[in-house]
Each structure stands twice: as C-alpha cells, then as structure tokens.
Amino acid sequence: MARYTGPKTKIARKFGEAIYGPDKVLERRNFPPGQHGQNRRRKTSEYGTQLREKQKAKYTYGVLERQFRNLFEKAERTKGITGEVLLQLLESRLDNVVYRLGIAPTRAAARQLVLHRHIVVNGQVVNIPSYHVVPGTVVGVREKSKSLEVIADNLAGFNHAKYPWIEWDEASKSGKYLHTPDRADIPENIKEQLIVELYSK
User: Fold this and answer.
1) pTM of this prediction?
2) Looking at CB atoms within 10 Å, which of 82, 94, 149, 173 has the fewest?
3) Domain 93-179, what architecture?
C-alpha cells in the first residue's frame, strides 16, 4: 500500500497551492521551498510545465506513478475526452468519495478510514482506497464507527450540497454516488490536457 509520506507543506509550496487543504505555513511562505525559493525566476520548458501538472494531480489525489499511469491508460480506452475521463476516474476512487462526502477532512484521512475498515460500500466493509465507485453506489460509515469523534467533528456543519453528484443521508451517515461528475463540477485546479500531452509524447 505505497503512498507519499513526505512533508506535505513542501509539496504545497512547490505548486503554490494548498493541494492538501488549508495550510498556515503556505499562507506565510507562498514561494517554492529551498535556499533560493524566493529568487527562482527560471522559465519552465513545455515538458516541465506538463510534468508539473501531472505531479500536481498525483499529489492532489494521493496516487503514485504506476497507479496514475494505469488510470491514464484506462481513460484512453474509455469513450470521451481522455483528460476529463482521467479526472473522473480519480474522483470515483473510494478514498476520494469518502473525502467528498465530508466523512474525512483530507484524502489522506479518508484513505486511513478506508484502510481501518470504518467505511462500507453498499452495506459491505471495503478497505481498498482505490476501489472504483460506480453510479448508484452507497458509501457510508460502518455502524460501530459512527460514534468516532473524528468523523462526527468533520460531518458537523459540512456542506454536502456543494457536490451535485453526491446525495447525503444524515440519518444513515451515508451518501449515494449519483453520477460521474462533469468536469465543470470538479473543483480541482488541474489542467488535464497538459497531462494528456505529456503521456502522448
């Protein structure tokens, strides 16, 4: 179960965006890390720009290179615009759906909840973060996990209406994945076409 475990603020500063959520350090030091972070003004090549966008997508969704490449190849085989399909596949990962439902504050926390068997899919415990959620699937909190403070705190006041492809049921602490999100509804600041161009070289 490999994943990135390094310093997250350093990655966020590299991209100049809070890709892991609110970051107080990034607010104070919004420039690249390193001794010369504030003085770097080198022009980035086309390849560098494309690579940067791919890395940003990987870090945002918490996947490593092999997983990301496999998802891209699946997107290529799927009908539709490859870049959009890629983001839709990333959005349909179980850990991401748990995060979008507000059950966890970050994707990393959502991944941990899934691995620790706190999440059920259609009533059955699933502990695979990369599990592909399809339209009509109900994702919720396991009955004996509903009293967990971390889950209750995060759900308190969470605005479930901001993601139109998910329907939340407060009584059962579960959400239904209604349909695959449109690109316009996915809030991540990722230029997916650059990723397509990079893999097409």
Assistant:
1) 0.82
2) 149
3) Roll (3.10)
Element (H, E) at 176: strand 174-177
Q: Which residue type sits at 172?
A: S
- Enclosing H/E stretch for 121: strand 119-121
Identify whether the C-beta of residue 166 lies closer than 8 Å to the C-beta of residue 139. no
Tokens read off for 181: 């999100």
Render each residue's pLDDT in the chain as its tens digit; 201 residues: 455 555 665 565 555 665 555 555 445 555 555 555 455 556 778 998 999 999 999 999 999 999 999 999 999 999 999 999 999 999 999 999 999 999 999 999 999 999 999 999 999 999 999 999 999 999 999 999 999 999 999 999 899 889 999 999 999 999 999 999 999 999 999 999 999 999 997
Q: CATH number of 8-90+189-199: 3.40.50.720, 1.10.1050.10, 1.20.1200.10, 3.40.309.10?
A: 1.10.1050.10
